[in-house]
Specification:
Structural class: mainly alpha
Radius of gyration: 12 Å
Number of domains: 1
Shape: flat
Bound molecules: zinc ion
Order of helices and strands: HH
Strand content: under 5%
Largest sheet: none
Amino acid sequence: MQKVKVSHKGRKCKFLHCKHVLSIYNHEEYCHIHLSQFPHVYKFKISK
Ligand SMILES: [Zn+2]
């Protein structure tokens, strides 16, 4: 068995009205579309 950290299945993007379901490999709270729309959020997260 591979040891891969995954998130809960079926999480949805936290952006208002966004219906994107996040991948279990996406540990962010937004879908990739909204992550790219908010680079400051993304930068903040990866800078830590
Ligand atoms: Zn989204």
